[in-house]
Amino acid sequence: MLVLSVVHTKGGVAKTTSAVYLATAAVRRGLSVIVLDADPQGSALLWADAAERAGDPLPFPVVTADATTMVNPPDADLVIIDTPPGYPALIDAAIDAASVVLVPTGASPLDLMRAWPTLQVTAHRPTAVLLTQVMLGSKLATEARAALEDEGVAVIGTPILRREHVRQAFASVPRDLVGYDDVLGELLGAIAEGVPA
Ligand SMILES: Nc1ncnc2c1ncn2[C@@H]1O[C@H](COP(=O)(O)OP(=O)(O)OP(=O)(O)O)[C@@H](O)[C@H]1O
Ligand SMILES: [Mg+2]
Predict the structure, then answer these.
(1) Which atom of ligand 1 is nearest to the CA of 162?
(2) What does pTM read for this prediction?
(3) Beta strands of 18-145 (E only): which ranges?
(4) 151: domain CATH number?
(5) How far apart are CA 125 and CA 106, in angstroms?
(6) Cα–Cα distance between 144 and 75 in angstroms, integer?
(7) Does ligand 1 come within 6 angstroms of the Cβ of 17?
């Protein structure tokens, strides 16, 4: 069983979006997947409930989780933990439970400044940064990758573009995975090799 925790101490960086898209990508690959929603706001659960009501149910279970559940998650090939911003105890529990930690962040210099404290907290676990909400044609992703790699931080090779249909995907099953399948492939490859991502 692999446990992937999606973590950032700040809000609105695409943690929940990444959890739902990666879970969808994993199901398409034939893996059994469960999403643990460790966010007291319950955004992933709300997504699942709204999708169900809209007649387009997510193809994986989303269940609420706390620090105790995360230590002993339900069995699945892949467990994805969606975490809240600003709850250090829940964030630490998700990091400790993880085979690999994924830190989504925007690619601007300000976004990177906001990501460093999270990267310090996850430094003792295999961690990879995912650049998200990148504007098409922007140089920022290249610059952000260089800045992070200079500091020894692993960066997923596929950046995720800012796309209107991603904003509209709440309450439905994502169709166009906007690169999240490649992201999942990289993460699974890194875990299989036993290499810190
Ligand atoms: N690739 C993308 N393109 C366009 N919009 C995006 C993309 N990824 C995420 N978003 C949007 O950004 C907003 C924040 O995303 P999301 O809720 O996933 O972040 P979060 O880190 O889980 O936030 P919170 O910390 O509040 O839980 C949402 O409106 C979402 O639709
Ligand atoms: Mg969220």
Answers:
(1) 3
(2) 0.97
(3) 33-37, 62-64, 78-82, 100-105, 127-131
(4) 3.40.50.300
(5) 21
(6) 36
(7) yes
